[in-house]
Amino acid sequence: MDTKNSTPAGHEPLDERDRLILALYAQLKAERQTREAMERAIRSGSVSLDVLEAMASDPVPVVTDSDIAALEILLEADEARRRGQEEG
């Protein structure tokens, strides 16, 4: 079963932009939950100083160059689709 474009009955299929918005929302929600869990773990003393130092010294970028390139492609495709709808 292809779940990539599946939607609840009676709803329009999601386009690339809508899927991106939902994915970014899910990512933000997961990051908030991770931060809250980390705060609880730090307060309770469950995370060692070594782990905290490792996390601080090797941060993972929230948005990578490939993410930006993918977003630019999506934006260009969305703009082309809009122009096509306006002309047609």
TrEMBL record:
It comes from the Bacteria. This is Uncharacterized protein. It comes from Allorhizobium taibaishanense. The lineage of its organism: Bacteria, Pseudomonadati, Pseudomonadota, Alphaproteobacteria, Hyphomicrobiales.
